[in-house]
Amino acid sequence: MLFEVCKHALYLAVMAQIGYANAQTGPVPVVGISTGIDQTTGKVPSRMNINTLAQERGPMWDLLIRGLDALQNKPEDDERSHFAVAGIHGMPYAPYNGVGPVSGGSGGGYCPHQSPQLIPWHRAYLALYEQLLSDEVRRLALEYTDDDASIYRDASEKLRLPYWDWASDPALPPSASNENVTINGPDGEIELHNPLYSYRWQTYPLNETQFPGQGGIGPTTTRDIDENLQNANNLIRDSVYRTFASTTTWDQMASMAGSGSSFEAPHNIIHNLVGGSFVSLDLTSFDALFLLHHCNLDRLAAMWTASHNETMQTQPFLSQGLYSTAQGENVTAESSLKPFYGADGKSFHTGRTVAATEAFGYTYPDIPGPDQGRTKDVIAQINQLYGDIAAAKKSAAVPNARREWFIDIHVDRADLPLPCSINVYLKDQLAGRTLLLEMPKTGIAHDELSLSRVINRLDADNNRSEYIERALKNDLHVKVMKGDTTLDARNIPSLGIKVVGEDVTPPGSESEFPLYSNRTTLMTINVATMRKHRW
Fold it and tell me: Which residues of 366-380 are buried (b: 16+ CB within 10 A; e: fewer)?
């Protein structure tokens, strides 16, 4: 009897701590998670690779599935439900935390794409979802008793959202590929609809007021996996590594709004290759795979920060217009990340307040210790995961610079029927792809594609620079695609494509990045006529 009284008291104490004993009203502050932190060292728990978590099939896995299931089954009008938080990103465009549209906003939800705010906004978004998930799993952990009680409580305090490392393995995680899942419940094994597989709309058919134009969608979120998802491995990895090694500012790394490579570009490709409702920015966030996808984008940015000593946006950016940001508004690192309130429940988070992941109670296994400065350990990890270590070791023995070639792309999104892709071929081989999602509707998008792999597949003469240059001038061509339809390039006057070369000096060790120098333009491509011109 005494045990039952104590157990009930503990239950009420935890419920009060996470807001269940007394219903909270007003804004939901985004403060992250304070449990599971080592009280001696201050080390915060890591977000884990979803494949590792699923393979272990331990208490964290059980609680993750049960917690996601609980959030997905909360009533849609509960502001702490999966439906409500997913709806922040795109449709149904309903106000959240009391924040609604502003004059001049172009719709499309709160989420900023092609903006330096892309990563900080999603960091706050994920932190909100993570803390709501933590509330659920700590409540559910109390249902386990006897020998499992302390194990599940400890797991509930350390559990963070997992990530899908599509940069090293773009194959869809097996744990997100099965419609049903069996886990350990308090009284033995239980089978659930897998919350990582799809989300079932509670109100169906969808409300046309909330989801205009989506009346034809089915009862669940969908995917239409492109057969090229696995084959895109090298293209995605090369884009990610190029961004790590060549970008020098947060603005370049985070967004296609600036020239060069960015993490936004491969992020777009993943949305497209998963397909179905996942490619729609209006609906993608309802699929729990979105959480795993964006946790990895956040992870890449955190690793970049740890290796570059720069933590936030540096240059002002003119907004293209969002649900809560007027078109033409000057966006900086001090601008509000609406609708995410800080701890005081009165002021919004900014790029500055979300600069450190530890502030929200998490880190990643690739980042040792709390230091967010440049570290050789992080660079070595980046090289190991995404670089060509074998080639680097071979080149280090003869550290001469080699000439590498890239495609530099820019286009005004207003000239394109979004979403669409820009595909570059050398002869009949795909050399690279730039994917533009449906929002924003305007603004200049940039990307850079490496030609190294397709050049290496040329004939035996490919070591001669004149042979390579001749092949690029004669055999490079571009297709702009809307789904399976090839678009007439004459209707895209802003599309600019250049072939550029750089001398690449291999790193002297596994803890260094290569050095890029002597950038020159070999030619420009007039896509409208497919005539090539020397610069």
Answer: bbeeeebeebeebbb
